[in-house]
Amino acid sequence: MADPRFFDRAGPFTLAALAALSGARLLRPEEGARLFVDVAPLESAGPEEVSFFDNPKYAESFARSRAGAAFVAERWVAKAPSGMALLIAGDPYKAYARAAHAFYPPPAPLPGRDPSALIDPGAVVPEDCEIGPHVVIEARARLGRRCRVGANTVIGAGVEIGEDCQIGANVTLSHCLIGRRVVLHPGVRIGQAGFGFAADPAGPVKVPQLGRVIIGDDVEIGANSTIDRGSGPDTVIGSGTMIDNLVQIGHNVLIGRGCVLAGQVGIAGSTKLDDFVMIGGQGGLAGHLHIGGGARIAAKSGVMRDIPAGMTVCGSPAVPLTTFMRQMAVLQRLAQKKDRP
Length: 341
Fold this sequence. Notes:
Largest sheet: 12 strands, mixed
Number of helices: 4
Number of domains: 2
Shape: flat
CATH architecture of the largest domain: 3 Solenoid
Strand content: 25-35%
């Protein structure tokens, strides 16, 4: 059970309601009226809690679980313990996520402005927004309805933010237009000048960064991540993209819809990612590249060339996964030969 000091729980919900909102189906429809009060992991869930099973590594935990119900793929039905109600889903983890959202919806903003907040008279801040302590909102900034802004955040002149956004503490926003339902975790920096210099024998000459950052709807950006504004073209983050903590995105980068960037990813300037690209932790991309839709880049990969749509790459320099595995096999054989007497 989530700690009630930090999380407010909704519910209870019937099994039928959980099935409907998650897109699952009940294995035994006659159990639809059973009430459940929470979600929990397989190991700790009790008879009134819902869990999920989608990884064979946890088959034993599933078989021993005391959870009253679980989301599960149809092929694992026979492994379920006696008495557990089953919600059949093609993607049990996603179905569980929807149920967890029902039990723990995002808290609604508490309309009001802390007395210490500094809001320019020329800014537009609807009355139903929640503005925390020591927030600064500069001239011509515009917030949508029902936004939450955490303590010490600075929203620069002319910045526009859509409805229902959650902006954490100590965030700085400048030169950016942000869509609806965007979540910015603490310490995010958006819109600062990009890293642009022209070479000169006397020393680098800074190039003015005259673009913006455009962020689509339903984007989430993790703590202490940074997104530089464009140098003339804009830096663009497509709708539905999820960005983890400590990610650096350079100027003029174009990121499509539904991309996923894990922690410590770095993308150099003017690289373009098409829709639904996934990059593992500490992946690094050189500038001026094109990454095709649905491409997957493994953790710690160093990408120096374009990647076609749908390809999975690994290593540094990154190569197709099959090539990387062959290289590793050759190296292992060479190492074994060297170790022989």
